[in-house]
Amino acid sequence: MARPGYENMKIKAGVLWEASGARPYRDARPLSIEDVDLDPPEKGEVLVQIKAVGLCHSDLVAINGERVRPTPMVIGHEAAGIVAEVGPGVEGFAVGDHVVPYFVASCGTCPMCLEGRPALCETAAAANLAGTLLGGGIRLHKNGQAIYHHSGVAAFAEFAVISEKSLVKIDPTIPFVEAALFGCAVITGVGAVINTAKLATGQSIAIVGMGGVGLSALLAARAAQAGRIIAIDVNEDKLDLARQLGADNIFNAASATCVGDVRQVTEGGVQLAIETAGVPAALELAYGITRRGGTTVTAGLPGPDAMICLPHMSLAGEERCLKGSYMGSCVASRDIPRYLGLFKDGRLPVDRLISHTLGFDELNEAFDRLEDGAAVRQVLVL
Description:
Elements: E1 9-16, H1 25-28, E2 31-38, E3 45-54, H2 57-63, E4 73-74, E5 78-86, E6 98-101, H3 111-114, H4 122-130, E7 140-142, E8 145-149, E9 159-163, E10 167-169, H5 176-180, H6 185-196, E11 204-208, H7 212-223, E12 228-233, H8 236-244, E13 249-252, H9 258-265, E14 270-275, H10 280-288, E15 290-298, H11 312-317, E16 321-324, H12 332-344, E17 354-358, H13 363-372, E18 377-381
Parallel strand pairs: 4-8, 11-12, 11-14, 12-13, 14-15, 15-16, 17-18
Antiparallel strand pairs: 1-2, 1-4, 2-7, 3-5, 3-9, 3-18, 5-6, 6-10, 7-8
Helix pairs in contact: 6-7, 6-12
């Protein structure tokens, strides 16, 4: 049921008018913080008051143009908030519900959804590419000009209209700042370990890339009782944090002996390796430290032109497996509540990944920190 006062809303939002890699972002200010118009939710849509938004590499590559998105666009996709209004036909949500959006909606009818793989929803992928909501609509405007929605969420804003098929209801006792991370970093990292790699108790695992996704994967490996956990990155501060969070061994990827050192300490390589850095060299490293019969999973997302070079013979001759993992191969409506339960029980302490909280006025500067590798997970608090 709609609440009065939300018609023809003007909201504050971070608008990307044109992608640019000009640095520093603190000075170039690619995100313009301004008032925009937000239409009310239509059939199957929900108005969400955004309370917290994580800053993600997927936001950064839209800003710097590495991954082309239509502009102007309100960026942001890793969020948590409160339902403020529901559109016609919405039955699963009510005003006051606490929710987390996920960046790939599930239409429920495309071939991938029917196969039980909603993270690969074809309808949602097309909508995300076009910058629309799942049903094709655009609800953001400025002076009569349409403004696109990033990943169907557009969360760097005080309010967002989102498809009900992009939302999951969560436990209202969980703080918004931590809950926001479960919309991207956590489901991507934890899901890569649990759903894609299918880590079994006692197996050895290495994670290449200690950002928010990689550290979430590390926490999942610890919760699932991996036999040995190895963390790899080029940033010593992130490696120190990885050790604090449960890594048995840490290695700097910049070392010329990194692959040999890992293979030595694991007596031939790890059973599972997960790459989260989104850099071809990181995936090649992850493959290089995987043992015979092992599995290498890539959850990183480089630019569309990035290529890798791997020894073909080892795939067959060593019965190796190379797998992709998108959104952690998750069924978000199932997995986000499960992972939040692990957090609430203290088994998935993702609060330790939050390095900065900030307001709208610091948003551009925060993307400098993200691109420089000087932050783990930063959260915009509204």
